[in-house]
């Protein structure tokens, strides 16, 4: 094993949805460095997913890409079918130890302009998909496993301009709470991680190259800077590790202290 790889998650299997870019990519790469075999789930960009797999491999880890577009009926079944068909190529045992529900639609319209179709889409990807990924993943998830849902600071801060998005993340946090209670007897921990503004491709259009927007975004955090994908990935890595075995049912604020 490469010297770059930590052994804390050796031979654990992690599924990361939305793992081909941004926060998801940082999470996948970090879990790979920590020793996990990582299933990098993606919707459309095969080249980006392959790049993540290659990066993890160069760091001494193991990973594979699975394509499933979320937000459609049957998406969870398709995702797990793709997972099942590949995991045997990397480990002699089936199953999963860590599920990271990261994929999501990042923004939505305000109350006045949001369409029914837009509402349905953001809830289908951000809420329904994680719900059924977990439902159908439970028979694969080993006792002592981890479920980590990527929420948002928008679930606790009033942001009317993205009201539906914030509502989906509130629903995801409620999902986390109930799962933690239900799965506790199996030693499975369930937590949410709630980022604030993070410098990713999703925010590039209004953030990158705009000094005024960057200064404003940084000013919202008590720590005085814009979040980076690695800031979130490191928190997820902690929650995935044995060090977080006594933490469950919590929303971990990862906004750098926004709105304090």
UniProtKB/TrEMBL annotation:
Residues 12-196 form the Ketoreductase domain. The keyword Methyltransferase does not apply. This is SDR family oxidoreductase. InterPro entries: KR_dom, NAD(P)-bd_dom_sf, Sc_DH/Rdtase_CS, SDR_fam. PANTHER family: OXIDOREDUCTASE, SHORT-CHAIN DEHYDROGENASE/REDUCTASE FAMILY (AFU_ORTHOLOGUE AFUA_5G02870) (PTHR43639), SHORT-CHAIN DEHYDROGENASE_REDUCTASE FAMILY PROTEIN (PTHR43639:SF1). It comes from Nonomuraea rosea. SUPFAM superfamilies: NAD(P)-binding Rossmann-fold domains (SSF51735). It holds the Pfam family adh_short_C2. SMART domains: PKS_KR. The keyword Coiled coil does not apply. Keywords: Oxidoreductase. Belongs to the short-chain dehydrogenases/reductases (SDR) family.
């Amino acid at each position: 094993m490469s010297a770059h790889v930590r052994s804390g998650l050796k031979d654990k299997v992690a599924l990361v949805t939305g793992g081909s870019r941004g926060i998801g990519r940082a999470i996948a790469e970090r879990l790979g460095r920590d020793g996990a075999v990582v299933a990098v789930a993606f919707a459309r960009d095969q080249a980006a997913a392959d790049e993540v797999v290659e990066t993890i491999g160069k760091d001494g880890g193991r990973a594979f890409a699975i394509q499933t577009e979320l937000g459609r009926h049957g998406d969870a079944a398709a995702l797990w079918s793709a997972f099942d068909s590949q995991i045997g190529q990397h480990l002699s045992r089936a199953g999963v130890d860590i599920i990271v529900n990261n994929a999501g639609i990042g923004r939505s319209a305000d109350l006045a302009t949001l369409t029914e179709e837009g509402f349905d889409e953001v809830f289908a990807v951000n809420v329904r998909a994680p719900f059924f990924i977990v439902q159908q993943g439970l028979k694969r998830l080993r006792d002592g496993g981890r479920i980590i849902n990527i929420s948002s600071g928008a679930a606790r801060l009033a942001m009317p301009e993205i009201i539906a998005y914030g509502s989906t993340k509130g629903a995801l946090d409620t999902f986390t709470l109930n799962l933690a209670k239900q799965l506790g007897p199996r030693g499975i921990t369930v937590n949410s991680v709630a980022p604030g503004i993070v410098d990713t491709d999703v925010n590039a259009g209004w953030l990158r190259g705009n000094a005024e927007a960057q200064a404003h975004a940084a000013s919202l955090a008590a720590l005085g800077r814009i979040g980076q994908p690695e800031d979130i990935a490191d928190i997820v890595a902690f929650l995935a590790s044995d060090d977080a075995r006594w933490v469950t049912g919590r929303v971990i604020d990862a906004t750098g202290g926004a709105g304090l």
